[in-house]
Design brief:
The structure is a homodimer. Chain A is mostly beta strands. Chain A contains no helices and 11 strands. Chain A is globular, with a radius of gyration of 13 Å. The two termini of chain A are 22 Å apart. Strand 9 of chain A pairs antiparallel with strand 1 of chain B.
């Protein structure tokens, strides 16, 4: 099936996971996966959170992101892929002028 | 963690899943996810296969792909996202001159 992000309404999530300002996302989800096209504008962030039963895979489409991952910091740019396996913690921050645009998948690994 | 595709060697898979010619992929995998940067050149395909315990999410980075999905055909271009949930069948074909480049995630949903 095609997930057409052009036809999915943008959801504006304020202080997402305790982050700064807002996170704009086009989201599709079912019982096994959350699939997102996400945008973080300058000064926006997704707060620190731990993936307990799922993981997250992020592919950067545009911009530059600062990722806090456990006790490390990663600088992510276009074409970079970040992986947060089960049990790990992360937070994504855009400190740059241009939008940080990414494609993300949050798969559930404990099948219901 | 960063998955740096620039540092991952390209694997050339001939007749992958029974497909035509070869599929070039840079792959990272652990027990829960397979994460790939994939290229199908003109005339190459990934053969028809069913996702039994996992699903697949594909984001098109460049080129045009023809996806057979169950009994439908999808034309996928840059920015399009294809989702093959558990229990469904698909095959990806490049019938165009330019390379079909994509980012793909195959999450396992039956956690071991």
């Amino acid at each position: 099936m095609i997930i057409d992000f052009n036809k999915i309404e943008t959801t504006v999530l304020n202080n997402f996971k305790g982050g700064e300002k807002h996170y704009k996302a086009k989201m599709f989800s079912d019982e096994n996966n959350k699939i997102m096209y996400g945008v973080l504008e300058n000064g926006c962030s997704i707060g620190l959170h731990t993936h307990e039963t799922n993981s997250e895979i992020i592919y950067i489409l545009d911009g530059v992101g600062k990722m806090i991952y456990d006790d490390t910091v990663e600088i992510l740019k276009k074409g970079d892929c970040h992986y947060c396996p089960i049990g790990h913690t992360h937070s994504l921050i855009n400190e740059n002028d241009e939008d940080l645009v990414f494609f993300a998948v949050v798969p559930e690994h404990n099948r219901k």
